[in-house]
Write a structure and sequence with these properties.
By secondary structure, the protein is α/β, with parallel strands linked by helices. It has eight helices and eight strands; from the N terminus they run βββαβαβαβαααβαβα. The protein is 32% helix and 14% strand.
Length: 314
């Protein structure tokens, strides 16, 4: 069950005129206000009993946190308090669609949200779950605050760009374009490379909160910046993590998973590779998705206090 925040400081003034891009007043929605004064739509999945840990879910480029409801419900079944927000320029949050002044804004906002919820539950361990671009955000957050997080689950994280889209020539061309045509669209994400599950691709294509404007040059540059920062951050990682990766991922190069495993200094690190699977493993063919839910359930259960209870994956 999703509920709003308890802290009144995250609730808007009654007279607030601010509205989501979908024209819904933020005063009617759970939200936070980031350091730039932008309103970010939030979601909270609170367990029926006392939470045993906190989990922040970081979504990928062009999507929104509502697409993680099934995963969040499963984690909620483990008595975890799961929370998320739509990143700036995404979903029901403010900001020009898929535009960010600097990739670190995403990281900063996550740390702000985590800090706010942790103050309400000061003794609980905090975990991160990130997919794709959200995986890069999670890695950078963990590297920036190494003692804050107790563990991290990464699903097809952005560690290395796909070689097809990141040749030296294309990178140079993008940097030149960013100087003269930063808002030029490089085209929308090809939904057929997200999953082999056609039903999930159809749901993605019909989701009104998905950004379809196409990847702008300026956002592509920020993603390249993120890859550079992630590579520098990997040796700083010491927290336990579970890494799930599809071998046929055409958006985030699977070689990045091996680079992450080799470079992170974490003693507790696990990689599970899904042969032939595409990018969105939690919305892949049923046998893959079932395994992904099971792996996350088992991994988290073993790393939270009093890990006796188990949830039931879908």
């Amino acid at each position: 069950m999703e509920t709003g925040p308890e802290d009144p400081s995250r609730m808007p003034e009654a007279s607030s005129p601010r509205r989501t891009p979908q024209n819904v007043p933020y005063q009617d929605l759970p939200h936070l206000v980031n350091a730039d004064g932008q309103y970010l739509f939030c979601r909270y999945w609170k367990p029926a009993g006392t939470p045993r840990a906190l989990v922040f879910v970081s979504h990928g480029a062009g999507e929104h946190c509502g697409r993680y409801d099934e995963l969040a419900q499963m984690l909620r079944g483990l008595d975890l308090l799961v929370f998320a927000h739509d990143h700036v320029g995404h979903g029901q949050s403010e900001g020009e669609r898929m535009v960010v002044s600097d990739f670190h804004v995403f990281v900063r906002d996550v740390l702000q949200h985590v800090d706010t919820i942790q103050k309400e539950h000061p003794r609980l361990p905090v975990f991160l779950l990130g997919h794709s671009m959200g995986g890069a955000i999670a890695i950078l957050a963990a590297a920036e605050k190494p003692t804050l997080f107790s563990g991290m689950v990464l699903i097809s994280p952005l560690v290395l760009a796909n070689p097809e889209s990141a040749t030296t020539f294309k990178v140079l061309a993008a940097k030149v374009l960013n100087l003269v045509l930063p808002n030029l669209s490089l085209g929308p994400i090809d939904s057929s490379v997200l999953s082999r599950n056609k039903a999930e691709v159809d749901l993605y294509d019909s989701d009104p909160l998905i950004c379809r404007a196409g990847l702008k040059v300026c956002f592509g540059i920020q993603l390249m910046n993120a890859v550079s920062r992630v590579e520098r951050a990997l040796p700083k990682l010491t927290l336990p993590f579970l890494l799930l990766q599809g071998s046929a991922d055409r958006l985030c190069d699977s070689k990045g998973a091996y680079l992450l495993m080799d470079s992170a200094r974490s003693q507790d690190k696990t990689l599970k590779l899904y042969e032939g699977a595409y990018h969105v493993l939690h919305k892949e063919l049923p046998e893959v998705t079932k395994s992904v839910f099971h792996e996350i359930n088992m991994w988290v259960s073993q790393r939270i206090p009093m890990a006796g209870a188990t949830g039931t994956p879908p």
